Every structure is written in structure tokens, then in C-alpha cells.
């Protein structure tokens, strides 16, 4: 059976599995995945499915399209999403639910909590949530861009125990296995380093948008939340038999022994910085301590436009990232304060309104 400590898992399926021949949806490779999901549920393990494929599923409906510009891709997604959901629904004998999200939804704390609540309600009522990015309406500013990273964000929101990312290769190799015969599969990764990212290389599929690098990014997000992550070959039927037996058919990424707190994980890996506060290169303040908080006197530049409550990045002038935090000031007010010659004025404003960033909502970056 699946690992006994897995009570809730997220399974991510990519476009190449949904529409392998670029002629609409096919259940050829999905049947084994569907049976795996059904078996997990039968064993008492809740499942959330993150499924790419709306664009790939709708592409064949636009035979006269001479280019795949953004507008055409959105139309393809709108047409293909219904087909993709119908394909999945035919493979299950239990109810499913569609949940379409954008990064704009996930990075807004109130909407993120709403997504969590919806997921929990669906699972509590024994429905299978099928999550996808809302490609038909999202913009470059609001999109995640790939469903690997989306699956990690969803796994964190769902408080999952494991994330299973289905790929077109059996996991992370020392080299690209499609090019190098001597490439070796790495069965377990205990720490994600620059060397691990170097091995990831580029994309191997011409259907999806996420290559191995985005899968490593997703694994890094998930394991920091305490979520065991496995990259497996979704095209191999035996993959799911091994998973059901509690075996590792791909590359296992072991989770942090001390996971990040939920709100700090959201701040670090899901919330998107709307602007930046730049400090001197020799800044050595402890941003987590109230008595050593950032002041306008420490800031040498303000970048971007942001409002009170937005997430911002604090970094040094040399580019070193120090923290992501909730801003207690708008960029407009900060720019106004910065232009004042009278430092007493800035001090009075900060005495009245409090520190620039919230010490309760700050994620230190290494």
C-alpha cells in the first residue's frame, strides 16, 4: 500500500500525459494514474489532483491558427478545459470538483485562505479536487506559469503529506537521459543545492511548459513545508504499482525535519513581492527583532509601487536578498518620507505609524 503516513497527497499531471499526440485529450496514459488515485482513496488517503493540459487539449480545435500568441492560447485553454475535465470525470466513479486559480489568488492572503477552505471542504465531503491554473483569464502579472510550482503551492495549502510529480522521465538524472547514455537516476535527494539545479537542465517535453528545473523548484517549495516529494515517470504503468507498494520508483526529496511555519512558507514561496526596499551593503540589522527594526534611515532606495499590506522584498544594494515582509507603508508614503531633509519628520511618522515592515509577517531569506 502507499506509505502508511500519507494521509493526504497531491498528484501533478502534465500536458504531455493529457494530450500526448496534440490531438486533444487521450485517456491512454491517464488510466493508470486514475486507478492509482482510486486505490489511494480506497486506502483512506485523500487526493488532490493538479492537472495541466487545457491549452494542449484545446489546440486541435484551432486548425487555422497561424501562431500561438497569448490571446489564442487563452482561447485554447477556454475550449480545452471542459474537455480535460470531462476526460478525468469519465475515469472516476466518484465525484470530482474543478478549482481554477491564478497566482493573483494564491498570493493574496485572504484569497489563499479561501482556497484552503474550499480544498478542505471538498476533501471532507469525499470529492476529488482537480486544480488547474486559470489560463483562459490570467495575465503575465498574475500567473504562476507552470503547474509544477502550482502543485507545490496547492500541496502547501492542502497541508499534504506528499507531492507526486508525474514527468516524462523517471526522475532527476545526473545528466539528460535523452541525450547521455551514461546518465544515472538519483534515487534520493536530502538537500537541494546549486548542483541539483545544474543537473535539472532544461525542458524535455515540447507539449508542457515545465521542465525538470521547475520540478526541482516545486520540490524545494514542498519539502520546506514538510511535504515529501517524488518525481516519477507518468508514462510507465509500473510507476503507480510501485507507489502503491510503498516503493520509490523515481527521485525522492526528503522534507525538512523542521518545516517552515505556514504563514512564513506562504510569504517565502507563494506571496509575490510588489516592490523592494534597498538598504546599504553593510546593513546588519536583525529584521526579526522589534528593537532592531528597519527604519527609513536604513533605506537608500525604494522600487516599485505597493500598498499597505503588500509583500515587499528587502535587499542590499549589491543584490543580496534579506527578507520578504508585509509592508506597513505604501511606496508613495515611503518615497515622501525619503525626500524629507528633516530626519525628525521621518522619525515622528514612524513613531506614529510603527515600523516599515511587520515583524509578525517577515520571512528571512538565505
UniProtKB/TrEMBL annotation:
CDD domains named among the record's database cross-references: AAK_G5K_ProB
Protein known as: Glutamate 5-kinase
All residue ranges annotated as the Aspartate/glutamate/uridylate kinase domain in the record: 7-233
UniProt keyword terms in alphabetical order: Amino-acid biosynthesis, ATP-binding, Cytoplasm, Kinase, Nucleotide-binding, Proline biosynthesis, Transferase
Listed pathway(s): Amino-acid biosynthesis; L-proline biosynthesis; L-glutamate 5-semialdehyde from L-glutamate: step 1/2
Residues bound to ATP: 12, 167-168, 209-215
Similarity remark: Belongs to the glutamate 5-kinase family.
Lineage: Bacteria, Pseudomonadati, Pseudomonadota, Gammaproteobacteria, Alteromonadales
Subcellular location: Cytoplasm
Matches recorded under SUPFAM superfamilies: Carbamate kinase-like (SSF53633), PUA domain-like (SSF88697)
Catalysis: reaction(s): L-glutamate + ATP = L-glutamyl 5-phosphate + ADP
GO molecular function, one term: ATP binding
Amino acid at each position: 500500500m502507499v506509505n502508511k503516513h500519507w494521509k493526504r497527497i497531491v498528484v501533478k499531471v502534465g500536458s504531455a500525459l493529457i494530450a500526448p499526440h496534440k490531438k486533444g485529450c487521450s485517456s491512454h496514459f491517464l488510466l493508470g494514474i486514475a486507478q492509482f488515485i482510486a486505490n489511494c482513496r480506497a486506502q483512506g488517503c485523500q487526493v488532490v489532483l493538479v492537472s495541466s493540459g487545457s491549452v494542449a487539449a484545446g489546440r486541435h480545435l484551432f486548425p487555422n491558427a497561424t501562431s500561438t500568441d497569448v490571446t489564442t492560447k487563452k482561447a485554447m485553454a477556454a475550449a480545452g478545459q471542459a474537455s480535460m475535465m470531462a476526460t478525468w470525470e469519465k475515469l472516476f466513479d466518484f465525484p470530482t470538483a474543478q478549482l481554477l486559480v491564478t497566482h493573483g489568488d494564491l498570493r493574496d492572503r485572504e484569497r489563499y485562505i479561501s482556497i484552503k477552505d474550499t480544498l478542505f471542504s471538498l476533501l471532507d465531503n469525499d470529492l476529488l479536487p482537480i486544480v488547474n491554473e486559470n489560463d483562459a483569464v490570467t495575465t503575465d502579472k498574475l500567473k504562476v506559469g507552470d503547474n509544477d510550482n502550482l502543485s507545490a503551492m496547492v500541496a502547501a495549502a492542502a497541508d499534504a503529506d506528499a507531492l507526486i510529480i508525474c514527468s516524462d522521465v523517471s526522475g532527476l538524472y545526473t545528466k539528460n537521459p535523452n541525450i547521455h547514455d551514461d546518465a544515472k537516476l538519483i534515487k534520493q535527494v536530502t538537500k537541494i543545492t546549486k548542483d541539483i539545479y545544474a543537473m535539472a537542465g532544461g525542458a524535455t517535453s515540447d507539449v508542457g511548459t515545465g521542465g525538470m528545473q521547475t520540478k526541482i523548484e516545486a520540490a524545494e517549495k514542498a519539502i520546506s513545508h514538510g511535504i515529501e516529494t517524488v518525481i516519477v515517470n507518468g508514462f510507465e504503468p509500473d510507476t503507480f504499482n510501485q507507489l502503491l507498494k510503498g516503493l520509490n520508483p523515481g527521485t525522492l526529496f526528503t522534507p525538512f525535519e523542521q518545516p517552515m511555519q505556514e504563514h512564513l512558507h506562504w510569504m517565502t514561496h507563494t506571496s509575490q513581492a510588489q516592490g523592494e526596499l534597498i538598504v546599504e551593503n553593510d546593513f546588519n540589522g536583525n529584521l526579526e527583532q522589534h528593537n532592531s527594526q528597519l527604519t527609513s534611515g536604513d533605506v537608500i532606495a525604494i522600487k516599485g509601487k505597493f500598498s499597505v499590506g503588500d509583500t515587499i522584498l528587502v535587499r542590499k544594494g549589491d543584490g543580496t536578498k534579506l527578507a520578504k515582509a508585509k509592508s506597513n507603508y505604501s511606496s508613495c508614503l515611503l518615497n515622501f518620507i525619503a525626500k524629507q531633509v528633516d530626519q525628525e519628520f521621518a522619525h515622528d511618522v514612524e513613531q506614529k505609524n510603527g515600523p516599515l515592515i511587520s515583524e509578525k509577517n517577515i520571512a528571512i531569506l538565505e
